[in-house]
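Listing S7. Sequence submitted for prediction.
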Amino acid sequence: VPPFSFTDQDGQIITNETVKDKILVVDFIFTSCKSICPKMTKRLSGLQINLPLSDKAYKDVLFLSHTVDPEHDTPKVLKEYARENQADTARWKFLTGDAATIYRQGNLGYLLSALVDSASAEQFVHSPNFVLVDKRRHIRGVYDGTTSQGVNDLVQDIKLLIGEERRRVREANP
């Protein structure tokens, strides 16, 4: 995943350095979406509950939801969306920025579709998938964010990745 810089729901700049040493779960949404976004957001909301910060194993898991409608989805709008969806914004960031940069990061960085489409009823096209990114910024999996099975597979792979990261640290510091 290439370096990035976006603005979160609190107006803070979030970069690849900000999320260094974090396991990322990434998706693309927009707040006025009536089709797949509500379902994806609900699934991530459930995921943050099922991977609680009270369990130290999950302290390095961070969720990044990028808007594909940055003209409308300002930090203020994203903050309200986060509140409405009970997002723990300490570990779930809603990101906005320059549209071309967001689309490039989606299409080339995370290998997910993210673009404006005037032929679409909602004016935007984006992937229904979540992407799992390891601490070294490698994509480790892509999961259907609209299905229980996709989220279950994501949870299993997060757990495997946490175990792998622990082994890597132990081997580096015998």
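Caption to Listing S7: primary sequence and predicted structure tokens for the chain studied. The beta strands are 5-7, 13-15, 23-29, 61-67, 92-95, 114-116, 124-126, 129-133, 139-144. The helical segments are 37-50, 75-84, 99-109, 148-172.
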